[in-house]
User: Fold 5'-nucleotidase SurE from Desulfoscipio geothermicus DSM 3669.
Amino acid sequence: MRILLSNDDGIHAPGLAALRWALAPLGEVHVVAPDRERSGTGHGITVHKPLRPKQVKFTDGTFGWAVDGTPADCVKLAIEALLPQAPDIVVSGINHGPNLGTDVLYSGTVSAAIEGIINGFPAVAISLASYESGDFKYAAAFAGLIIPGLMKGNNTRECNLVNINVPPGKPRGIKVTRLGNRRYVNIFHKRVDPRGRTYYWMAGEPEDSVPENPAVEADVDVEAIKNKYVSVTPLHFDLTDFQAIHYLQDMIDGQEFNIFEL
Amino acid sequence: MRILLSNDDGIHAPGLAALRWALAPLGEVHVVAPDRERSGTGHGITVHKPLRPKQVKFTDGTFGWAVDGTPADCVKLAIEALLPQAPDIVVSGINHGPNLGTDVLYSGTVSAAIEGIINGFPAVAISLASYESGDFKYAAAFAGLIIPGLMKGNNTRECNLVNINVPPGKPRGIKVTRLGNRRYVNIFHKRVDPRGRTYYWMAGEPEDSVPENPAVEADVDVEAIKNKYVSVTPLHFDLTDFQAIHYLQDMIDGQEFNIFEL
Assistant:
């Protein structure tokens, strides 16, 4: 198995090292990751400056590529230019901190995985759902266990993009989950600089809620983590709201405007 | 109606000016937009440096806020700190260039709208689906026509996030659409700098395909634009793949690994 490994905490992050060790027994691990932390980059890509990949030697003597771009840039560049052959799977992580609920939209870790599946490769994002704990042991071990299962038979056809969060400490079990809603309250700290100009730091506390009327009943990822379970969420990347298509068509048909009058 | 207007081409972009004029008859338009072009930022947010909003005077004597951050930053800061009251709707655009298919995941324009709906406000993203044409007339007029319809009655409960693309020239009509798949081929141009180091420019041509087995039949956005129709796509922000939940549960149940052995 050829594994493309990336992340958004940067090529020297301990979470990436832990995952590199856990995946090594499964096959060739090719690391292409940002040269420094890129948290909160969402699915950003770099189009206004060129990318410069640089070979990096790890302490065990193996090599990886550090790229001065976003996680999505790394996956694109790896697939199109840096890897000798196409990967069998794209793995992103282990992120230091949770990627739960609505926050997956901001997540560089998840965006690397989404970039994988857009290009036709099954992909897994994995996060340690804690900023305090730096113990990646359980998350790494779980990745090493679940990835061969996902790659077996036709699993990747049915479920080809998976977001995993692992609680700090020993997990109580595994839950297959759906995404919760997470919005932030009191997010800005307002300050004034020595020259009298106002500036704002983004911070805030998460406020969680459960999206109603799910298509399929399932635990919510945020709750699973609170209860110390590993959360495994199948994702897709089609943002179409199919439930609203007929509604929107009726609304537009019922409008009094005519496009030809524009 | 209080409208929060943002974009990703920057506060001085002509597409924003066109939309500002088109929305003015509908109510108060509050502009909070990036201080410069932020294309391709995806749903990035700025957490490692503070944000500095700066008041900008437009040629008509009205004011807006320019923020040294991403479109998502602008919407967050507007809602939490800059606007005197909560908006009734968040509008993002007019983007100069298409935001179609899978590309919506990279789109700063769409991310501003998604940030609106995460915070509980209905939102519309609007793009002129052409890099060549700079004529925002039809796109601006269409926004002015559809937004009052979306805000009428309970429409926003059923359909609260809409992605609009308007073809260059006079449109032939309107299609309610689903997102297509768009991936890029030959995306990197490899070059060597005067010091012998390799660098890569991201570019490439889009390769479009139609996602199979949609939950509801509908035209694909990319096709609608090719055929010179306005494309109106309802979006949501729940990336859960509900179709894969049972499958993943069965796979995990059938695994030979035990979480307690970790």
Remarks:
- The first strand of chain B starts at residue 2 and ends at 6.
